[in-house]
C-alpha cells in the first residue's frame, strides 16, 4: 500500500545530500522509497566553513528551527528580532543580574550560527551543495531535487566519455536496485549510481540515445522548466543549473540545445501577443507600463516566497513557544501545590 501523506514535509540533513530525517510518520520518505525515486537536496554546509561543527551537531532543519525557538523563548523574543542584541544577563530576573549559565550561553551561540546560515541560504541551495550534486550524481541520473520548499526534476546529462561508452556498449536498461532515502549517508553515492531513474515517461534517463546531446557537450545539471511563465514557450524544456540563485542559468529545448523564449522580454506570452506588442513598437507606441508590471510581478513573487518562508518558521516558533509555556505552567502549578501542602503541614493548632 502507498503511504498516506497530506503534504510532503521533508526535513533535509545539512551534511548529506541524500539524507532526510523523517517528519511525522515518515510517509513522505516512504512514498519516494516505494516508487524508487532518488530524493536529493543541495542545502549542504561546507565542511571547511566555521559553522560546520555547529550545523553538524544540529543535523537537520527541524532541529535548527527548534533551537532558534528555544533561544528566542530564553531571551524573551529578542533573538529573532535581532540576534546581535542578545543581553549578557538573563531577562528572567531583571535587576538581580544573573548571568547566562554556560549551557544557555552555548545554546545562544549555536543559535546565532544556525540562524545566520538559514538566513543566508533561504533558497535551500548552497554552492557546496551544488558542487556536491554535480560531482556525486552519475551522468544520466534523473532524480527529485528538494529546493525552495518544492520538488524539481533534476537531470545530469551524460558527458562525452559517457556517450562514447554508450555507443560502444549499446543502450542498456537502468538498474532495478532499490533506493533508501539517505538514512545511511555513507552509501549515498552508490545508491545514486545504481538507483532507477525512469519515473516519468518521456523524460531522458541513463539509457537515453546519445543523439540528445552534442558530441562535445560536457556533463551538466538541468532542472525541468515548470514555471507557469513557460506555459506557452514550447521551446523551453530544461533550465541549466549553474548557480544557486538562477542568475546565470540558461534554457535548452528537449534536445538540450540552447533555446530562447519566443516571447523574448515577454517570456510566456503567446505568439499573437508578441506580434501585437511588436507592432506597437514599430509604430512608436512603446508602453513602459508592461515593463513596470513585469518588475512588479517579479518583486511580488519574491516577496511571497520570503513571506511563506517566514510563515513556516513562525509557525514552528509559535508551536515551540506553546509547548514551553505549558511546561512552565505545569511546573509552576506543581511548585504552588507543594508550597500549599507544606504550609498546611506547618500549621500548629493551639
Describe this structure in words.
About 45% of the residues lie in helices and about 10% in strands. It has 10 helices and 8 strands. The strands form 2 sheets. It has a 6-stranded mixed β-sheet, with helices on one face. A two-stranded antiparallel sheet has the order 1-2. Strand 4 (about 140-145) and strand 5 form a beta hairpin. The model is unreliable at about 95, about 160-190 and about 195-215 (pLDDT under 50).
Q: What overall form do the CA principal axes indicate?
A: elongated
Distance between the termini: 74 Å
**Spatial arrangement of strands, main beta sheet:** 3-4-5-6-7-8
Described by strand count, sense and barrel closure, the largest sheet is: 6 strands, mixed
What is the alpha-carbon Rg in Å? 27 Å
How would you classify the helix and strand content by structural class? alpha+beta
Query: Please, what is the average pLDDT?
Result: 74
* Elements, N to C (H/E): EEHEHHHHHEEHHEEEHH
Given the structure, what is the number of helices? 10
> Which blocks of ≥5 consecutive residues have pLDDT under 50?
93-97, 162-191, 193-216
The number of strands is: 8
Helix content: 40-55%
Fraction of residues in β-strands:
5-15%
